[in-house]
């Protein structure tokens, strides 16, 4: 798989995952405000942060692949 294809896969996937994690953080906060037992909202918040951080990692991988793609294009070396 080329750097360009990886970039075009990881960057949008990361953004979607970041959005899902952010929504889950809000959901966990609403559970806390509803006075749900702490065990439930802490677990929900932990899961939300895991999803959010996974999205950050995926997006970061996309950025790295974008840089590698741009460096290869600039050098004229299009072989992978």
TrEMBL record:
User: Which keywords belong to this entry?
Assistant: Membrane, Transmembrane, Transmembrane helix
Q: Where are the transmembrane segments?
A: 7-29, 41-64
> Which domain of life, per UniProt?
Bacteria
Q: What is this protein called?
A: Uncharacterized protein
- Species annotation: Hymenobacter montanus
């Amino acid at each position: 798989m080329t750097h360009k294809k990886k970039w075009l896969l990881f960057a949008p996937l990361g953004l979607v995952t970041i959005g899902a994690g952010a929504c889950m953080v809000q959901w966990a906060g609403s559970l806390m405000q509803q006075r749900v037992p702490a065990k439930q909202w802490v677990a929900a918040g932990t899961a939300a942060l895991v999803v959010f951080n996974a999205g950050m990692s995926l997006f970061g991988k996309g950025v790295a692949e974008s840089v590698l793609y741009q460096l290869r294009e600039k050098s004229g070396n299009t072989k992978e």
